[in-house]
Write a structure and sequence with these properties.
It is built from three helices and seven strands; from the N terminus they run αββββαβαββ. With 139 residues, the chain is of the alpha+beta class. Strands 1, 2, 3, 4, 5, 6 and 7 form a seven-stranded mixed beta sheet that branches. Strand 3 and strand 4 form a beta hairpin. Keywords: Acyltransferase, Transferase.
Length: 139
């Protein structure tokens, strides 16, 4: 009948490409370039990476923040807020209407809420004893 195998990197790309193609038959893209990288990093004068944000705008003017990280020694100086604000500003210029992300209860929920994000979903006990929050902000 069929067999299940592990995926190579090329297999993963083909799976994503197939899903994107299907999605676009259901809802046509509203942006010319399907995926726009909005990622940024902060670098000290000595060349050290202080923090960064990985985000991309996809298909319909929506932005997914995959990761926001600030080195422990640079936390508390507003760097996370600055990185997030720069991604939001860039996204707005490109016509984005929504930005979304997820964070754990031991991460930066308070930062995101202070920037206007709201929780729209919670995954309890992920990891055990903790919660994962799904957040969004209209741009």
């Amino acid at each position: 009948m069929y067999q299940i195998y592990s995926c190579s990197e090329e297999d993963k790309k083909n799976i994503i490409d197939g899903l994107v193609a299907y999605n676009l038959t259901c809802v046509p893209a509203t942006q010319e370039e399907l995926f726009v990288d909005l990622s940024r990093k902060a670098v000290s004068k000595s060349g050290e990476i202080m923090g960064g944000i990985i985000a991309r705008m996809y298909c319909w003017g929506c932005v997914d923040v995959d990761a926001l990280w600030v080195s422990e020694k640079y936390r508390g100086i507003g760097l996370g807020k600055t990185l997030l604000s720069q991604v939001e500003a860039s996204a707005r210029k490109k016509g984005a209407c929504l930005i979304h992300l997820d964070t754990f209860d031991f991460q930066a929920r308070g930062l995101y809420e202070s920037q206007g994000y709201e929780v729209f979903g919670v995954l309890k006990n992920c990891p055990p004893g903790h919660e994962r929050y799904y957040m969004k902000k209209c741009l």
